[in-house]
Amino acid sequence: MREYEGTERLGHLAHELRNLLNSAVLSYEMLKAGNVGIGGSTSAVLGRSLAGLQSLVDRELAEVRLRAGIHHRESVVVREFLEDVEAAATLEANARGLQFSVVSVADDVTVHVDRQILASVVGNLLQNAFKFTHARGRVALCAHATPDRVLIDVQDQCGGLPPGQVTELFGPFRQHGADRTGLGLGLSVCDRGARVNGGEIRVDNDPGTGCTFTVDLPRHSPVRS
pLDDT digit string (tens) for 27-36? Predict the structure, then answer.
């Protein structure tokens, strides 16, 4: 059974890599030929394909590290972390014609995490938010801090989930919505990635509007000499 699941997962990965790469190559060839403008829809397809490739590779690297038990936790300044995430996410939002906003926290708010795995967690949540948010909708990335917790919210405008579907979200090979791209592994990786970093993920479903995924992490208090 495990061998079958591994083969299925590899097949899905190869399929998605091929699709994204083909889209990127075709878009590049059209731009190189000079038949379309750099600021048009073809350029947006290229940008979206490259962002998808980056997200897929990041997710697989995180998956490998999680399976191998390789974790390197360090003190991470949340504001700086979100600034890095924002740069790539803004490109993805622009390519999809979506609005994107970020609300951060004070400079002294830190978490003790594996930065690469946390980046994959938040990146996957944003990728899903961009994928399922309605055309010209808004995605928000918001951080909040209490004396002992740091909450990172990803809010989308997907229209909400059907009754009973929230409990099924974090199983592998599950895909939701009309857009079938992606391995269906992203949320499973997110769940495990949050737990490895001492936290958890919660989902708030607002039918008719959208979902808010919250990464709940312990706030780190650096030892002062």
Answer: 888 888 877 7
